[in-house]
Write a structure and sequence with these properties.
5 domains, seven-stranded antiparallel sheet, 29% helix, extended
């Protein structure tokens, strides 16, 4: 079956619902026919409702249990349709303008890549003029006819409902006391909370019921002429059974299906079978307690009622269609027996149909590979760029051998979208075709090339593995070509086992897909770092290493490409690490001997020329001179559990439920990172997380903290707590979430043009990193759930990078839009910043160089000759500077009436708008000037004074000489100095081990206030 390529996504849904409902209807027919004596009519009714529901539900969830997993022929039956801009054919290379989505095409083939990043070759056969003049009108005509038919069916249905409502309005309430008592009794028995209405009409129709919210029974007046009281009771009982079973809902479902699929004969067949089974089920329930003679009388009653008119169609007539009458009479003479085993069988069959029939097929790995090899294509030429939707953006390019220029096929290109809230959407993938070409759809703006996986024999230089890439509305398709290096191929076989924690980590985002085992190799020339890595100790590198990643099959077999030039590498195979040292010139296809190195886990391989290679933790076997490295590992065994507990409240002390709690783990001196373990707080605000600890972990000096996020509150990290060797539970006690604040941001480039899709990431802590976002097409974004205070913000747009600080006020009205100017990032030529020698006490203080003062005035140091000047060197980038503000404010208040001038000098990276905002927020009145300079590392005044760190406080005496500076070492024993200062300040020193960060900050402010007061007093006394 082959449909035209003009099918939209809606028509694909209609087609899929149709053929899947057809399959379900056939299966239901077979099951109900074969098990007719075993499945009661009430269960058969529900079974027939399944294919009807599939027709109504155009989209159903994907499941690996879907019945249609066995009938997956979507790609062959209905081609996927992608509207893509046309490609300008060029022999000169790839183009990056809007008129070219693909590139480097030496022949007349168009390359078209589906939205799921598959690649295919599309012959250029159909002229666009033919498509424009024929296909679109036909498609519009079909859609118009369908819509018109829907309207006709819907109007007809509404008309019958209106007729029914008018009929009820013109009828009289039932006055028969016996029947009213029957209705009241059934109402009590069925425990209905809505009363059943009953009307008598003069219209020519049979007994009927209708309505769900207002259940109603319609009885023709002729019943009192043609039937006795017992027959009337039976009729009312029948209609009450319809109401008890809510059959009006099934009737409503069938009407929806008929409205949408009015052109489809299948929907009428299914609806007819459903109506028949409804009546059979009601008949069975009505006569369940009847004897044989009464059953016979009931059959005669149905025959008599069949002579009545069956209008209106919006109700359920008792007699139903005459074509079904024979089946109903047959059931009365041969009733189905009900029992618990039969009901259990029916329920099982129904559940199977619901689970497998109302879900769609999950695409298997084999089907995904088939789609990559032969995806659905369209035979029409791609449209011009002007018709391309503005919201579509692509990264495209070619992967080639850097030496030969040959294309590299089957390369998996991965792009990382940092701002994507859905973790499953953060990584976008594409596979190169036979020409080495790929194309991947991305959001507008900044994305990151993220460690592509090449086929065996190829690897990438470190600078090729991660790069910032940017699309814009003017350039929606960015070309990025990748140069691949070549290297020897090693055959590997991993035969390890995984524990529960490792399996959870590998399958966290796979859904129904099989586990993907991966192996990687990294060049590590430093022998000491390589040894530490193998021991599981933390290791850091100044520069990225050459690396390569390969996928293993489900049996653990695969190939690794040797990278770099040193031959010194670390292998990472799923859950283990090993070492591979290869001598230069070693040929791993001509290995002649193997040797186990005594007292080690290492095997030495020697090739035909005498060159050697050594691998650890592997069993090596040879096949025609080619080694196979087999790594056998056992799953790490659990040795205990580390439990983390705590309670989260708001600023008023009320417990907070549904707070997202993540775990941060790390080693002392080795950094930290998210563990992936998460939970949510209970209604009481409590949380508890159990972390399994395994025997292969380095648990010494292990530390943990938790990050807390909840919409409307400021995200925060807890303080870090070191774990005990006996896994004593860690209680974070009560953690308070402060109200969250929002702040709008506008990002501009050097030309003051908005940067579209720039990444904005708060970097104060892990919790705030979750508020990462990106700017829209106007360069604007809103940062949410921020705490009050200073937020360190990283702004990235390709190679334009800026680290800045935002001041967030407690008063939301003060958090107005902030404009951030982002410039091209200039790589540092030095890895270490050389500090200037500090000016000694007693030297003349140099004149400052200030670009701008917060109060708009100009001032010079010489203006304050004869006064004591206190210079506070600080910056928003330093947390200690902001934390020390309380001490600075106390000093200013203390010496307000004396001849002391307090001035702030901010680092050159400061934004005056943010400095003023902080001064206002903290009610800190000190005039502050921004240094002249190019960056935070280039402060002109700071260099003159030889500032050693921030914050620093310098006291200048009335003669203009430096009398004190806080950034140099104290004379004598520092421990004695701090103890004396603490005693003078009235604080306990050293701080207690369990002291909180807030307590430590308060203590340090008190110490600073005491120290600086003493030095200022000393200068004032000398003045007198």
């Amino acid at each position: 079956m082959n449909f035209a390529s003009d099918f939209t996504a809606f028509w694909e849904l209609i087609w899929k619902a149709t053929w899947q409902a057809c399959v379900l209807a056939c299966l239901v027919f077979c099951v109900t026919s074969l098990l007719q004596r075993w499945i009661a009519p009430k269960w058969r009714t529900l079974l027939w409702a399944v294919p009807l529901a599939r027709l109504v539900l155009l989209t159903v969830p994907v499941s690996g249990l879907s019945l249609f997993q066995l009938l997956y022929f979507e790609n062959s039956s209905v081609p996927q349709v992608v509207v893509s801009p046309a490609t300008e054919i060029s022999n000169t290379g790839l183009s990056t303008n809007a008129g070219s989505l693909l590139s480097n095409l030496p022949d007349r083939d168009h390359v078209k890549i589906e939205p799921d990043n598959r690649v295919s070759n599309i012959p250029d056969k159909t002229k666009p003029e033919l498509e424009t003049s024929v296909s679109i009108p036909i498609f519009a005509l079909i859609t118009g006819i369908w819509f018109l038919g829907c309207c006709v069916v819907l109007i007809r249905w509404i008309g019958t409902r209106w007729m029914l409502s008018r009929l009820i309005a013109n009828s009289k309430p039932l006055q028969d006391a016996t029947l009213l008592e029957l209705i009241k009794t059934r109402h009590t028995q069925d425990r209905r909370w809505i009363e059943v209405r009953c009307f008598v009409t003069d219209a020519e129709l049979g007994p009927s019921s209708c309505g769900f919210w207002r259940p109603t029974i319609l009885l023709p007046r002729k019943l009192w002429e043609d039937f006795d009281q017992q027959s009337r009771r039976t009729i009312v009982t029948h209609e009450l059974e319809h109401i008890r079973r809510h059959d009006a809902l099934l009737l409503f479902l069938s009407r929806i299906a008929i409205t949408v699929h009015w052109f489809n004969p299948l929907v009428y067949l299914i609806a007819g079978r459903l109506r028949r089974e409804i009546e059979l089920a009601v008949d069975a329930a009505t006569v369940a307690s009847f004897d044989e003679q009464t059953r016979h009388h009931y059959g005669e009653l149905l025959i008599q009622l069949s002579q009545y008119s069956q209008r209106p169609i919006a109700a359920l007539p008792m007699a139903g269609k005459r074509s079904a009458l024979r089946t109903r009479i047959r059931q009365l003479t041969h009733p189905s027996r009900e029992s618990r085993p039969r009901s259990a069988l029916a329920i099982c069959v129904l559940l199977i149909f619901l689970v497998t029939g109302l879900s769609d097929a999950a695409q298997t790995e084999e089907q995904a590979e088939d789609n990559q090899k032969s995806p659905a294509v369209s035979n029409r030429q791609e449209q011009r760029p002007e018709s391309k939707p503005a919201e579509q953006y692509f990264i495209t390019g070619t992967v080639r051998d850097t030496q030969t220029g040959e294309p590299v096929s089957n390369a998996e290109i991965r792009l990382f979208v940092a701002s994507e809230p859905d973790v499953n959407q953060r990584e976008r993938k594409g596979i190169t075709n036979d020409k080495g070409q790929y194309r991947i759809e991305v959001p507008l703006g900044n994305v990151q090339l993220w460690f592509p996986t090449l086929k065996p024999g190829y690897w990438l230089l470190p600078e090729e593995c991660t790069q910032a890439l940017v699309t814009t509305t003017e350039n929606p398709v960015l070309e990025h070509n990748i140069k691949a290096q070549t290297g020897p191929i090693w055959n590997i076989h991993w035969k390890g086992k995984l524990n529960e924690q490792q399996l959870k980590s590998l399958t966290a985002h796979l859904k129904d897909q099989p586990i993907q085992f991966r192996a990687s190799i990294q060049e590590v020339e430093d022998d000491a770092k390589r040894a530490a890595w193998l021991k599981g100790e933390p290791v850091s590198f100044q520069n990225a290493n050459a690396s390569s990643v390969s996928n293993l099959d489900q049996s653990g077999h695969g190939k690794l490409t040797q990278v770099g030039t040193s031959g010194k590498t670390i292998l990472t195979l799923v859950n283990m690490t090993a070492e591979l040292i290869v001598e230069s010139g070693f040929n791993n296809t001509r290995v002649v001997s193997l040797k186990q190195i005594p007292d080690t886990e290492k095997t030495e391989m020697t090739d035909a020329s005498g060159k050697k290679a050594i691998v650890s933790k592997a069993t090596v076997t040879l096949n025609d001179g080619v080694p196979l490295l087999t790594f056998q590992t056992e799953a790490a065994k659990p040795i205990g559990n580390q439990r983390l507990t705590g309670r989260v409240v708001d600023e008023k002390g009320n417990p907070l439920a549904d707070v997202r709690v993540g775990v941060i783990g790390g080693l002392k001196g080795g950094g930290s990172g998210e563990t992936g373990e998460e939970t949510q707080t209970t209604d009481e605000g409590t949380f508890s997380i159990k972390l399994p600890i395994f025997d292969n972990q380095v648990f010494q000096n292990q530390r943990f903290s938790v990050m807390l996020t909840k919409d409307g509150f400021a995200g925060t990290d807890s303080e870090t707590v070191y774990a005990q060797k006996d896994f004593t539970p860690i209680d974070f006690k009560t953690l308070t979430l402060q109200p969250g604040h929002s702040i709008p941001v506008l990002v501009l480039d050097e030309q003051k043009q908005p940067l579209q899709g720039a990444i904005l990431e708060p970097v104060n802590d892990y919790a705030l990193r979750r508020q990462i976002t990106r700017t829209d097409s106007t360069g604007k974004a809103i940062l949410k759930n921020l705490p009050s205070g200073v937020i360190q913000l990283s702004v990235r747009w390709g190679t334009k990078i800026k680290e800045t600080n935002l001041v967030v006020s407690k008063n939301q009205s003060e958090n107005t839009e902030v404009t951030i100017h982002v410039n091209e990032s200039v790589p540092s030529t030095s890895s270490k910043v050389e500090k200037q020698k500090p000016l000694a006490v007693g030297q003349q203080a140099p004149e400052w160089e200030i670009a701008e003062w917060s109060d708009g005035q100009t001032r010079k140091l010489s203006d304050f000759r004869g006064q004591v000047v206190v210079l506070h060197f600080w910056g928003l980038s330093y947390a200690g500077c902001v934390a020390s503000i309380p001490a600075q404010k106390r000093l200013a208040r203390k010496y307000k009436e004396q001849d002391v001038v307090f001035l702030g000098i901010h680092t050159a990276d400061g934004e005056m708008s943010q400095i003023k905002k902080l001064l206002q927020s903290e009610q800190w009145t000190i005039p502050t000037g921004i240094e002249r300079g190019t960056s935070i590392l280039d402060n002109v005044t700071g260099k003159k004074y030889g500032i050693q760190g921030y914050p620093s406080l310098i006291v200048i005496n009335p003669e203009g000489q430096i009398a004190f500076r806080s950034d140099i070492k104290t004379p004598g024993d520092r421990a004695v100095f701090m103890k004396t200062l603490a005693e003078e300040s009235g604080v306990k020193w050293p701080p207690a081990e369990n002291a909180t960060q807030t307590e430590i900050i308060e203590m340090m402010n008190q110490l600073q206030f005491t120290l600086f007061s003493r030095e200022i007093e000393s200068v004032l006394n000398a003045k007198q």
